[in-house]
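Lab notebook, entry 351. We have the chain sequence and a SMILES string for zinc ion, and the next step in the workflow is to get a structural model of the bound complex before anyone spends time on docking refinements. Request logged below.

Task: model protein plus zinc ion, output structure tokens.
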Amino acid sequence: MSTEAIPKKAGLLDRLERGPVICAEGYLFELERRGYLQAGAFVPEVVLEHPELVAQLHHEFVHAGSDVVEAFTYYAHREKLRIIGKEHLLETINRQALKTARTVADEGDSLLAGNVCNTNLFEPTDAARATVREMFEEQVGWAVDAGVDFVIGETYSFAEEALIATEVIKSAGLPAVITLAFHQLDVTREEWTPAEACKRIEDAGADVVGLNCIRGPETMLPMLRSVREAVTGHVAALPVPYRTTEAQPSMQSLRDPDYDAFPDGRPFPTALDPFTCNRYEIADFARAAHELGVNYLGVCCGAAPHHIRSMAEALGRTPPASRYTADMSKHVFLGTDSTLKQQNLGYARDL
Ligand SMILES: [Zn+2]
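Result returned:
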């Protein structure tokens, strides 16, 4: 029997020292689009009902270039389960999500991340602070049991809630990636700027700080510049792949002038399709953010594997999915290959 030691995977912080790390997200939106998760409550019951489909999406994101398998515990917290009357499933759903992610991470070189997020219960009172802390402690505890490499705390609009998540994750002895979500305003709900909030979170011990969700590439980039200048450690950026603008800075504020018959008067969250960034726009974002000094990159709600592959390739990677990256040279109408039938070439180009 070989006594050779199994080489240990490099951890998150080692990898960040060597180069950018990619983390694919957006599980809620993608599994909703696939018909296995209900928009509205947005509770990931699919984790229990179809763990094989969650594993499949983990696989697709890793194939496309994600370095991280993020356990799908986003919104698998006490408050979200309460709203669908299934609080009794809290521990089961968390442990199953972690187990599914563990299986995929163990198949290759991916890192396994636990996840906590906005509880929707935070307010600046001692009672709310205690409730939120308990919610983080129970979820982080299950993540520790599953042997995660690090924990992501994300989508906080109250920086103070993010600070509590940081404390809980660091108390568990794990690296913490903490990201804030900015909605219509360029400040947190306490009215701290992104730079000020991220600096405070870094000072509280977070290993990576930055922004995720809500904002598309165009309205997240300017904030990243200020965050990069304010902190000394690693910076994260995981925008939504939607074309937000200065006038419509968040995905909730996007409007479609050609179609306004939405059931609730807005495209968010089930009709954002016409605003979706293509793969080249995501590549542009990845390059621009990386040039700013952002080294933990991903795509949040709305992400699909082609976005992740494009991001990976923009950062100089060739993930397994690059085997199928577009090559138009053999396209019947647009190609340049000399064996293509000349009669077809240029046909579609001129239409
Ligand atoms: Zn998101």
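Notes for the group: The two ends are 66 Å apart (CA to CA). Worth checking against the assay data. The first strand starts at residue 21 and ends at 24.
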